[in-house]
Amino acid sequence: MAAGLGSRFGGVKQLAKVGPAGQAILDFSIRDARAAGFGEVVLIIRSEIEADVREHMAGQHPDFEAIYVRQDDLGPPRDKPWGTLHAVLSAAEAIDAPFAVINADDYYGPESFGLASAQLRDGGEGIAANIAFEIGNTVPPVGSVTRALCQVADGELTNIVETDGCERQPSGRVMAGGVEVAANSPVSMNLWCFDPSVMGPFKERWDAFYEAHADEPKSECQLPTVVGELMAEGRLTVKVVASPEQWIGITNPDDFDMVKAALAHR
User: Fold this and answer.
1) Is the whole-model pTM more than 0.85?
2) Nearest to 113 by CA among 263, 243, 225, 22
3) DSSP notation for the chain
């Protein structure tokens, strides 16, 4: 998913050159995914950045042709994208096999893609997976962020809660919403594994969302919310698989140098 506005970053963070050879984070993800056995890459973009993304890809991956999907083609038109569920649904016609979903501006690490590939081989209709990260491996050294805390029982997701105020205190303790949590508590960073049959229920949820929120310019139909709703209805089982990787991502301009240093030798 590479259609975000990057308003807090102040530019097209999907293409921020953080690698030693001018790579963006998405280039490391493409490399790691292909090494783990993934085949096609579908880039969900928006029309106004398509030319820049294509130029970047031609320079970084001259031997590989990605599939491009414009999220705004699904419509209806709006300045702000309609959210991550809408983004995935916009790629429905390009997907006919088990697939993983990632954010273009998040670095997940090679082992995470290996875990995702294994889950997709063992999945099927009504079965999904989330490659979860330890919250301690996702909070910055300074400042607070929002994280999707996962509640897990017997290896399956039972609830997912977007939680503000996730931070590491000077003492080393990790806080989430004002409450101390274990540093290894699982959080979702939007690395999902799905069977293509999920697109039908996704379409139902999008239609219902649009009917209720069509006139709200900032409302978003988010993937974790819809996953939770389908779980509650017994239509989707989500396995949770822990990744040992250190997550790295860009949200604000101050993140750039930190991410660049972290990826210098990847």
Assistant:
1) yes
2) 243
3) ------TTTTS-GGG---STTS--HHHHHHHHHHHTT----EEEE-GGGHHHHHHHHHHH-TT---EEEEHHHHS---SS---HHHHHHHTGGG--S-EEE--TTEE--HHHHHHHHHHHHT-BTTEEEEEEEEGGGTS-SSS-EEEEEEEEETTEEEEEEEEEEEEE-TTS-EEETTEEE-TT-EEEEEEEEE-GGGHHHHHHHHHHHHHHHTT-TT----HHHHHHHHHHTTS-EEEEEEE-S--EE--STTHHHHHHHHTTT-
Please indicate, yes or no, if residue 5 is contained in any of the structural domains.
no
**pLDDT tens profile 126-183:** 999 999 999 999 998 888 999 999 999 999 999 999 999 999 999 999 999 999 999 9
CATH code where residue 31 lies: 3.90.550.10
**Number of domains composing the chain:** 1
Q: Which domain holds residue 222?
A: 13-262
